[in-house]
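We modelled each protein-ligand pair independently. The example shown here corresponds to the glutathione entry; the chain sequence is given first, followed by the ligand as SMILES.
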Amino acid sequence: MSKLVLYGVDISPPVRACLLTLRALNLSYEYIEVDLFSFEHRTEEFHKKNPQQTVPVLDDNGTFIWDSHAICCYLVDKYGKNDELYPKDVLKRALVNQRLYFDASALFMPLRNISVPYFYHNVTEVPQEKLNNVKEGYKHLENFLGDNKYVNGDIMTIADFCCAATASSLPAVLKMDPVEFPKIAAWLGRLEKLPYYEEVNNVGVRKYIEMLKDKFTYV
Ligand SMILES: N[C@@H](CCC(=O)N[C@@H](CS)C(=O)NCC(=O)O)C(=O)O
């Protein structure tokens, strides 16, 4: 078995999605913290690992893979004892992929579009439209969940890890009202029962929310 190294920071939702996958697969890995605030990821050395200069990055024996969604898919395909977390069946996989791309584009990006300008340029005035995009994300997620236990039905997949790592972080910019979004609240409650979820997700979520709490004015 090759050596896995994950580069990341625990406030990052995509990093936490990868950590959830690594833990669900019971894989051993080294975790290397990257100090985004000292621009460690903008160095030439990190650029060689990921020219996009984002975390997470997975180093599997000298091959570098980035984008959390690609990493999670790869980990299950290569190291999963079965395909439950990322089904091989073409149709089932297409549906899981749909939720992964939803997370990448419609759930995480609205959050990133508010948090990154704050972290790097101290932008605290946020156009209402940006906040509306976060709300749209919540609404779609609530709708997708419907009466299912997980985002793709009754079986937990990596799409749950990716969407949950993001959704649990969204309250940093917009409170998740459990009355308006009861399916999301119940689903997150279900995932919280995973023995490693508190350690690899919620600790980082709390730090992230604390860093962004009361920082924004919406105009
Ligand atoms: N789609 C990417 C997003 C990665 C991303 O935006 N990561 C953030 C941390 S949450 C980052 O590295 N930000 C540093 C920067 O953009 O300078 C993924 O899922 O991995």
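The mean pLDDT is 97.
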